[in-house]
Design goal:
Largest sheet of chain A: 9 strands, mixed
Strand order of the largest sheet of chain A: 11-13-9-8-23-21-16-19-18
Largest interface: A-B, 20 and 21 residues
Structural class of chain B: alpha+beta
Shape of chain A: globular
Protein name (chain A): AP-2 complex subunit mu isoform X2
Helix content of chain B: 40-55%
Structural class of chain A: alpha+beta
Distance between the termini of chain A: 45 Å
Subcellular location (chain A): Cell membrane; Membrane, Coated pit
Number of domains of chain A: 3
Number of helices of chain A: 9
Number of strands of chain B: 17
CATH class of the largest domain in chain A: Mainly Beta
Radius of gyration of chain B: 37 Å
Shape of chain B: globular
CATH superfamily of the largest domain in chain A: Mu homology domain, subdomain B
Family (chain A): Belongs to the adaptor complexes medium subunit family.
Largest sheet of chain B: 6 strands, antiparallel
Helix content of chain A: 10-25%
Number of helices of chain B: 43
Number of strands of chain A: 23
CATH architecture of the largest domain in chain A: Sandwich
Oligomer: heterodimer
Radius of gyration of chain A: 26 Å
Membrane topology (chain A): Peripheral membrane protein
GO molecular function, one term (chain A): lipid binding
Chain lengths: 444, 937
């Protein structure tokens, strides 16, 4: 289990140090600083083993969070915990920065006491935590309230307290996806996958029972066989709009759920039913690899003219419905290390050579579907006495599109609250799809 | 030299550096550097000419970026351009960049060398200095090749400025150290030596470093420097402190120069010329006198400088070791320092005294300080000083004070630091042995040693006690009594149990008369320790028990009972179990006569170098060597009369005493051949052939060696544990040999160690080995590369010694490495006429070697041809008029010379005989090749 947890600033100074077990000594703090933060070469592995002690670290802007253990722990669990911890801190005091951590260090220690006990992760649900760890000073609570907190935290539904009441029952559903791609210069897909999350923000009264439906291939196929009785539910599609194709169902490779989802029911009939926590939560995460709609195609053309000149031409094509608009498009074309000058011509957007990053960055604010645009650049090179050839790193791209590249569609989200008298129809529901680029690269 | 003026400061550089310093994170720093690099690249693009200032600035920035740890792959050209500038600062930056960043890039090196040449030939002293510094800083072989001829000329030229001379001397020193073969002083030698007379002290100081280095390599050429150095030294020593102006340091005239002069003199023996010697002695006396004068300043620098000269003078006195008067004075001076309040001085005094103690003239003088040194050992706060004190005590010990010193060291041992305990133990053991007049004292001392510092007593120490006790009849009874008493302590160290078990097992009968130490009491005492001991000790105790059965038949029943108990006879350790079973059977089956023969008292051990001393030497390196010579003298009397047991006796004892002896014999450096037939009767052979651990291997094996005369690859050695394969290749006078050590067992070999030894190593062959991993896993193979350079012709092959532990038993294998003179043959093709002309030229009797011998293999033509080719010579067809005969020619390549060699082999098929004739320009070569080859057919 986790033996200790340290937070460092970018200089390697320790901001927070919490040791849970005796096998982690004081020198562990320094070991990580010396071997990872101040290492001669940049350490790229998130897990580092120093003297039979394992350090798991994540970095948030300039802040390093490191969990330390001497035991053979489940590394995925540790990272899950670290991410959760980042979420909790963000929920309490906003951005994770050196200043914020210094200002809230008492709170952080309090949180660490709560979410990690002798190195074992505990309840880290922000909503639940906020009921008893507050930033507003000590509030003398009545006995009743205290016992209610206890029963809620230790009870069956630890993530939602009773007696929530809203005048307007509202519900927001975001499907957030990031699409990853590696493509050969000839346009062959070398690897591609989409990792997505369904984030839900709910303002519902009482203890509502919800049921979520999407175009999961297994469910659709089963229903197709079962008959048309459920077809009506399929029609009550909440209004998602597909990007590229008339794909009916998608194959999900793997998925994980928020703790509120009843897994037994999912395993048995693949239906997703749950009582949501109040406010925001990540309902599920999933990954797909088949039939991905690639929103953009990058066609590179690199020509070396002698030893001192390089000509680059890059065409991007958008590959989705013309009615949709992609945003925040950025193409990053790496330049050789001995570049001495660059001339760029582009038809659309703005392009600039950024010497500090060794790349030409081409930005386009908006671009509709089924369009294409191109950039051409002349790169002057300085002859060097180094015989090393330029490695030609891939061209990468960033963008945001208003559809789910995996093809996922929300079919329904039904709400039942038997005790209070509001029905599914009274709930106002919103659905949004956002597809972003992950690592979206084309070799050149 | 012109300093960088304010106006010349580079603002852009300062801004860049402060930007880097202000970066919040590494990423930000890399971004800033990338940006700057792009900027510099665009500036260096070549289409616009840059002025010297900006070139300098950008080169400087590149240098800074490089020093931050980033790769720089451009800008070299610009830096080289800076070299040709006329401004000092620009030139300086150029040279700086070159000396930091240049690699052996062919085209640039040419340009750089050109620029350096220009600067060297310029009249501007600062430019010359810059160029010289650059050469010294780079110091590569290319630089040495280009300038090694030029620099001595600058050094001795009459019109060179003094500062340039200094730089030139130091630059030459650097080049000489890097590639000594390229710096040939030859004609310059005498003029360089005369630099010692130079007016300018700085030049002398620089030159003397060079001369010291050169003369340590070839002392004869620079002999003349001695008298010059002496006169220079005497001029400095006798000068008033104000005479030398700039070179007087806190009232001490030219301390650095004096130290270096004294150090130079230490490269040579005392001068033979009486006048020079007198002058030198005078100087040394003056230095010693000056040490007595009251200090002229209270500053620490003053005393430091004075003491530095003094200590250097004392080492010179010790080095000469011929002036009793001076040695005693030096000793007294050091004696004063022993009580100085400066710790460093005390340390140095102890250290120098250590060397003084080994000189016969000053040994007595050193001894007078014994009380102070003992006091230092006890009270000194710094462990390194205590260590020196212990060393000095060891060095000053002789017969008269041995008891006192050993007693002091023993009492100190109880509180000594852990880091020096083991060494102290070894020293006490050696001193006790060396100066033992009566052996009861020796036994007492060592037992005390084991009692006080048991953990630090290595195996060798207690082996040695046993060897001595066994070899000395007069001490055995006393030893038995003492160990018996020592064992009565409730807690005693395992080493004590080992010594006790061994000695009581051998000589328990000598004290059995006393009812307090009756046989049964002895046995019970030993057995009470049994269960607290490790397996090897238990095995030793079991052997002691069986010896008890022989010594005291009345204990037989008790001991058999013990041996029969499950904890022995079914012990999970194989060794213990086997011993228990065998001893039990032996005691019940064998008659008393047989038992008495088998379990006879151990014969005396053969004399050899004390294993403890060897261990100390290994631990300490050269420090202990001085004692070794004396030790050789003392040892004879110590053990009273050399080789008592002949080789046969040892072989017999090896086979006829139970395994505990193997513990002792195992440390023998060359174990006797275990194959010798045991003399003790064949019924015992069965018992012991399976008893001991795997036998240590035979001595040097010769036939593997001969197989390799005509081939280069194959299996050199093989037994049930180890296989050694060999692969070798030779080119001219160089050879490379790959040895493959294969572990044939499934158990790993530990402490695997190989050494190649060659009697007169350095002169004839140059053998370099790479060390192998000390661990060889079961079934694994390790490789070792040996590089061989043949310096001149030779006869004896180098010996390869392999040591390793297999399941606890030390294995020791010695092999001749198949390196023979014929490996360095270079085949030579020649025509018949040519051959016979040469053959006739080599007609002197000593140039020819001939052998007539019987064929030991078949006389197959193809086989013979293959063997002759394998020899390395060229087989010449159609040369000899008789087609049956074989004729070969080759040149043996050694570093010293090349030896042409002609060979003629005449087979006689009827008689199955050969006649082999060898002719070469060197008689030893003919003989050797002839001998080697005769074994092959």
């Amino acid at each position: 289990m986790i033996g200790g947890l340290f937070i460092y600033n970018h200089k390697g100074e320790v901001l927070i140090s919490r040791v849970y077990r005796d096998d982690i000594g004081r020198n562990a703090v320094d070991a990580f600083r010396v071997n990872v933060i101040h290492a001669r070469q940049q350490v790229r592995s998130p897990v580092t083993n120093i003297a039979r002690t394992s350090f798991f670290h994540v970095k948030r802007s300039n802040i390093w969070l490191a969990a330390v253990t001497k035991q053979n722990v489940n590394a995925a669990m540790v990272f899950e915990f670290l991410y959760k911890m980042c979420d909790v801190m963000t929920a309490y005091f906003g951005k994770i920065s050196e200043e914020n951590i210094k200002n809230n260090f008492v709170l952080i220690y309090e949180l660490l006491d709560e979410i990690l006990d002798f190195g074992y992760p505990q309840n880290s649900e922000t909503g639940a935590l906020k009921t008893f760890i507050t930033q507003t000073g000590i509030k003398s609570q009545s006995k009743e309230e205290q016992s209610q907190i206890t029963s809620q935290v230790t009870g069956q539904i630890g993530w939602r307290r009773e007696g929530i009441k809203y005048r307007r029952n509202e519900l927001f559903l975001d499907v957030l996806e990031s699409v990853n791609l590696l493509m050969s210069p000839q346009g062959q897909v070398l690897s591609a996958h989409v990792s997505g999350r369904v984030v839900m923000k709910s303002y519902l009264s009482g203890m509502p029972e919800c049921k979520f439906g999407m175009n999961d291939k297994i469910v659709i196929d089963k229903q197709g066989k079962g008959g048309a009785t459920e077809e009506a539910a399929g029609k009550s599609d909440l209004g998602g709009s597909g990007g590229g194709g008339g794909k009916q169902s998608i194959a999900i490779d793997d998925c994980t759920f928020h703790q509120c989802v009843r897994l037994s029911k999912f395993d048995a009939e693949r239906s997703i039913s749950f009582i949501p926590p109040d406010g925001e939560c990540e309902l599920m995460r999933y990954r797909t690899t088949k039939d991905i709609i690639l929103p953009f195609r990058v066609i590179p053309l690199v020509r070396e003219v002698g030893r001192t000149k390089l000509e680059v031409k890059v065409v991007i094509k958008s590959n989705f419905k013309p009615s949709l608009l992609a945003q925040k498009i950025e193409v990053r074309i790496p330049t050789p290390l001995n570049t001495s000058g660059v001339q760029v011509i582009c038809m659309k957007g703005k392009a600039k050579y950024k010497a500090s990053e060794n790349a030409i960055v081409w930005k386009i604010k908006r671009m509709a579907g089924m369009k294409e645009s191109q950039i051409s650049a002349e790169i002057e090179l300085l002859p060097t006495n180094d015989k090393k050839k330029w490695a030609r790193p891939p061209i990468s791209m960033n963008f945001e599109v208003p559809f789910a590249p995996s093809g996922l569609k929300v079919r329904y989200l039904k709400v039942f609250e038997p005790k209070l008298n509001y029905s599914d129809h009274d709930v106002i529901k919103w659905v949004r799809y956002i597809g972003r680029s992950g690592i979206y690269e084309t070799r050149c | 030299m012109p300093a960088v003026s304010k106006g010349d400061g580079m603002r852009g550089l300062a801004v860049f550096i402060s930007d880097i310093r202000n970066c919040k994170s590494k990423e930000a720093e890399i971004k800033r550097i990338n940006k700057e690099l792009a900027n510099i690249r665009s500036k260096f693009k070549g289409d616009k000419a840059l002025d010297g200032y900006s070139k300098k600035k950008y080169v400087c920035k590149l240098l800074f970026i490089f020093l931050l740890g980033h790769d720089i792959d451009f800008g070299h050209m610009e830096a080289v351009n800076l070299l040709s500038s006329n401004k000092y600062t620009e030139k300086q930056i150029g040279y700086l960049f070159i000396s930091v960043l240049v690699n052996s890039n062919s085209e640039l090196i040419r340009l750089i060398n050109n620029a350096i040449k220009n600067d060297l030939s310029s009249r501007n002293p600062t430019f010359m200095c810059l160029a010289l510094h650059c050469i010294a800083n780079v110091g590569s072989r290319e630089m040495a090749e280009a300038f090694a001829g030029e620099i001595p000329r600058i050094l001795v030229a009459g019109d060179t400025m003094d500062s340039v001379k200094q730089s030139a001397a130091l630059c030459l020193l650097r080049l000489y150290k890097a590639s000594p073969d390229l710096v040939l002083m030859g004609e310059w030698t005498s003029r360089v030596v005369h630099l010692l007379n130079d007016q300018h002290m700085g030049v002398v100081t620089a030159a003397i470093s060079l001369i010291t280095c050169l003369s340590s390599k070839n002392p004869d050429e620079f002999k003349t420097c001695v008298s010059l150095a002496v006169s220079r030294l005497s001029r400095i020593v006798s000068s008033a402190s104000t005479d030398l102006q700039d070179y007087t340091y806190y009232f001490v005239p030219a301390p650095w120069l004096s130290c270096k002069l004294l150090r130079l003199l230490q490269c040579y023996p005392p001068p033979e010329d009486g006048a020079v010697k007198g002058r030198l002695v005078e100087c040394l006396e003056t230095i010693l006198n000056k040490a007595q004068e009251p200090p002229k300043s209270k500053k620490v620098q003053h005393s430091n400088a004075k003491n530095a000269i003094l200590f250097e003078a004392i080492s010179l006195i010790i080095h000469y070791d011929s002036e009793p008067n001076l040695l005693v004075r030096a000793c007294n001076q050091l004696g004063q320092f022993l009580q100085h309040r400066e710790t460093n001085l005390r340390y140095l005094a102890l250290e120098s005294m250590c060397t003084l103690a080994s000189s016969e003239f000053s040994h007595e003088a050193v001894k007078t300080h014994i009380e102070t040194v003992i006091n230092a050992l006890k009270t000194e706060r710094d462990v390194s000083v205590r260590q020196r004190a212990a060393d000095l005590l060891y060095a000053m010990c002789d017969r008269s004070n041995a008891k006192q010193i050993v007693a002091e060291m023993l009492s100190y041992l109880e509180t000594a630091d852990y880091s020096i305990r083991e060494e102290m133990v070894l020293k006490v053991a050696i001193l006790a042995e060396k100066y033992a007049v009566d052996y009861s004292w020796y036994v007492d001392t060592i037992l005390n040693l084991i009692r006080i510092a048991g953990d630090y007593v290595s195996e060798e120490v207690w082996y040695r006690v046993i060897q001595i006790v066994i070899n000395r009849d007069d001490v055995q009874g006393y030893a038995a009594k003492t160990v018996f008493e020592a064992l009565q302590a409730p807690a005693c160290h395992e080493n004590m149990v080992k010594v006790g078990g061994y000695i009581l097992g051998e000589f328990g009968n000598l004290i059995a008369g006393d009812p307090r130490s009756s046989p049964l009491v002895q046995f019970n005492l030993l057995h009470s320790k049994f269960h607290l001991c490790s397996v090897p000790t238990r095995a030793l105790l079991l052997s002691a028990y069986i010896k008890f059965i022989n010594l005291f038949p009345e204990t037989k029943a008790t001991i058999q009972e013990v041996l029969r108990s499950d904890s022995q006879i079914r012990n999970s350790d194989v060794e213990l179990q086997q011993r228990a079973v065998e001893y039990l059977k032996l005691s019940s089956i064998a008659s008393t006569d047989v038992l008495a023969t088998v379990l006879e008292e151990m014969p005396p051990f053969p004399e050899r170098e004390s294993s403890i001393l060897a261990k100390l030497k290994k631990k300490k390196g050269p420090g202990a060597v001085s004692v070794e010579l004396e030790d050789g003298k003392e040892r004879g009397e110590l053990n009273g009369g050399g080789d008592r047991g002949g080789d046969a006796a040892i072989a017999a004892s090896n086979a006829s005493t139970p395994s505990p002896s193997a513990d002792l014999l195992g440390l023998r450096s060359a174990a006797p051949v275990s194959g010798a037939t045991p003399s003790a009767g064949s019924l015992l052979v069965d018992v012991f052939s399976e008893a001991g651990p795997a036998a240590t291997s035979a001595g040097v094996n010769d036939d593997g060696f001969l197989r390799f005369v005509c081939k280069n690859n194959g299996v050199l050695f093989e037994n049930q544990l180890l296989q050694i394969g060999i692969k070798s290749e030779y080119r001219q006078n160089l050879g490379r040999m790959y040895l493959f050590y294969g572990n044939k067992t499934s158990v790993q070999f530990v402490s695997f160690n190989t050494t190649v030894s060659y009697e007169i190593k350095s002169r004839i062959l140059n053998v370099q080995t790479k060390t192998v991993e000390p661990l060889v896993e079961g079934g694994a193979q390790v490789q070792q590369v040996i590089n061989i350079e043949c310096l001149t012709d030779f006869i004896d092959a180098p010996l390869l010694n392999i040591k390793f532990r297999y399941g606890g038993a030390l294995q020791n294998i010695s092999l001749k490495l198949p390196v023979t003179i014929n490996k360095f043959f270079q085949p030579t093709e020649m025509a018949a006429a040519d051959f016979f002309q040469r053959w006739k030229q080599l007609s002197q009797p000593q140039q020819e070697a001939q052998k007539i011998f019987k064929a030991s293999h078949g006389m197959d033509t193809e086989v013979l041809k293959a063997k002759l080719l394998g020899l390395g010579t060229a087989l010449l067809e159609n040369v000899d008029p008789n087609p049956e005969n074989y004729v070969c020619a080759g040149v043996i390549q050694t570093k010293a010379q090349q030896v042409g060699c002609l060979l003629r082999l005449e087979p006689n098929a009827q008689a199955q005989m050969y006649r082999l004739t060898l002719r070469s320009s060197k008689d030893t070569v003919s003989q050797r090749v002839c001998d080697l080859l005769a074994e092959q057919f």
